[in-house]
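Technical appendix A lists one of the benchmark inputs used to test multi-chain prediction within the project. The record comprises two sequence entries:
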Amino acid sequence: MPPETPVYTSYHPRWYRQRVSTYWWLGRWSYLVFILRELSSLAVAWVVLLTLLLVRAVSAGTDSYAEFVQWLKTPVVLALNAVALSFLVFHTITWFNAAPRAMGLRLGGRRVPERLVAVAHYAGWAAASALMAWMVLG
Amino acid sequence: MAETIQLEVARYQPERDTAPRLERFAVPLRKEWVVLDALNYIKDRLDGSLSYRWSCRMGICGSCGMSVNGEPKLTCATFLVHYAPGPVRVEPLRYFPVVRDLVIEMSDFLRKLQKVKPWIIRREEQPLSSGEYLQTPEQLDAYKQYSMCINCMICYAACPVYGLDPLFPGPAALALAQRYNLDSRDQGAGERLRELSHADGIWGCTFVGECTKVCPKNVDPAGAIQQYKFTAAKEWLKSLLLPRGGG
């Protein structure tokens, strides 16, 4: 009886390849955050659509605008907008945190610190929000 | 502190296994020991058939990248005590074919690395008599961070895009392309851009950002790729507005 010896083929026998699971994004928190960030673009698209519908309603006259506002007050649209708002905030924060790295801003031959770029983004956001609040509430 | 720690090491012997399996080993838990020391202990004292790559033991050669408890790490810079009381699961780098035990097949990476032309390209070389190509500290600083890459492929094991799209060049190769693009001595940016500005090049990156988080040399491949995309978009716009190159 011959001893149990390994049988080799001439060149790299059999590589083991693991298939990437369809649910790879559930395996790690940062991957899930990434997928949610990508999904948040749907919320952005929804808000763009809503704005276009608003413009159309306003241009069609007072009745049409009142009808549009009534529609906005329905529970389904309210719930949808609440979800969209949370996704938009998430989208903004994750993007502002990523932007300094993506920009790689340099001034006078030196890299601008990432924290400074992020702070500038948040400051711009706060200023724009303050302006909107002043226009709506003021 | 416990005297030993359990290591669960992935074993794959192609002549007998159809898939990797985990084998447990008890190794001494010493505060100065890294995971690579534990693997060397196993190889020397417990099972000489264990296969893995390593060389310098000091974070320079980039050979000993493995998955430690699911995270891609340089095993020479990953201390055992951080995982106490254990067990510590050591597996080959994710997304690469496994040759044996912890040894991955890296030809795909090497092919892609070559494709991005990671060397200085000159349209015309200066004559030797005019001396070296000089650089200011600012010019060096523009690419230095990206030049710290040791080709350890840890960023590939963290990049789901590389796992899903076999044509994607991957974080390290693209960061190295950008390293040469930003080098004041290089004139090959256009050549590289033609090779890389498409869906299976820089635009394949979806900015997951994990490559930067796991990089043991703080190279920031994710940042390099996004900046590369910005340059590519600028060049595309320029070619649209000035189709004849604007003189």
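Residues 18-86 of chain A form a domain with the 3 helical TM bundles of succinate and fumarate reductases fold (CATH 1.20.1300.10). The mean pLDDT of chain A is 89. Comparable benchmark entries are summarised in Table A2.
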